[in-house]
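note to self — DONT lose this again. spent like an hour looking for the file last time. sequence + predicted structure for the chain T wanted, 399 res
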Amino acid sequence: MPRAAAPLLTSPIPRVADSDRRRTSASVVLRAVLEHGPVARSTIARLTGLSPASVTDYCARFAESGLIRESAELRRSRGVGRPHLPVDLDETRFVVGSVHVAVPHITVALLDLRGRVVARREMKHERTEPAVALARAADGLAALLAGTPGRRSLGVGFAAGGWVDRDSGTVVEHPLLGWREVPVREVLGVHTGLPVHVDGHARALVNAERLFGGARGSRSVLHLFAGNVVDAAFATHDEVHHGPRSQAGAIAHLPVPGGTEPCDCGRVGCIQAELSERTLCRRAREAGIVDGVNPMHVVGAAAAGDPVAVRLLLERSRRVGRAVRLLLDVLNPERVVVTEIGIMHREDCLTALREEVEADRAATVSPISFPDSVLAVAGGAVALDVLYRDPLGMSPEVI
């Protein structure tokens, strides 16, 4: 009996695959411009493995949208032929808005396409209710945009500590602020009229490191954030692990070896209780070094030669090092990035931290690449990560 002819494929699956392929190709082209620009189109084709025609097409789209422009400087090829006119990011047209909500204050900023801070403002909390805080953040962003004529915002990135669900755009829980199930994406979107992207600050800073920082090109990266909130993020092959409802990296109650600090959970030695900047400042107040809650005052006292301040910072860095060693044993990353105020400002603190890590792994541990703009970069990196993953999927009102 003759076989029936195979039915023609009418499923949308090939179109979905083609769409994913175009998104990936667009992403690698724009990333190549970010990493190597000004760069010739032929070089982009060689770096990415895409055809010269495809690279030319994507570059034309990006140029039309204002993301890239031709460089004024001609570059000669290694062989015989006409010189190349390279392309580079156009840093003059677009910015992304950044909102980071910390325990003591809100940071709002504008970042260019290379993740550099164009404008920034820090606002102490008047009230921490979500509606009030987010409205102030939106007003702060509007003021920054008004002060940078000629720039348009591609969107807003929001970052915070605690449990932040990227997919729903929600701060699920931030115990220190008292926030629960806050629809940040929706609220900021209404206030700003812009696309809003939301993530936890530890994951946001991993994205910043892989795009603009010292971890670029690393196959796996662990990031430990030790501020008032202590959390972590882990990325492999350019993907940050989020887990179900973005709960990955919630390490607040992981025990630190040798910890003695009582925790609100009833146990002793939990990582957040041990490493929080609130703990550092409380110990500094008890020692008569400072009378407030700003950890930079402890760093300032140490820089002025106060031996107790130096001791407190070194002790904290050693505790951070023990936490890093614990996470290294579990995750075994190629690179470790730590956001901690001591190692960001003092070489002796970095040395103390590394001494707590196995000798053959110590060199893989480094401070965050943005010591003077951590919180501003965190928020902006959320939006920039979206741009570099899907540059053709941006808002049609902008492109």
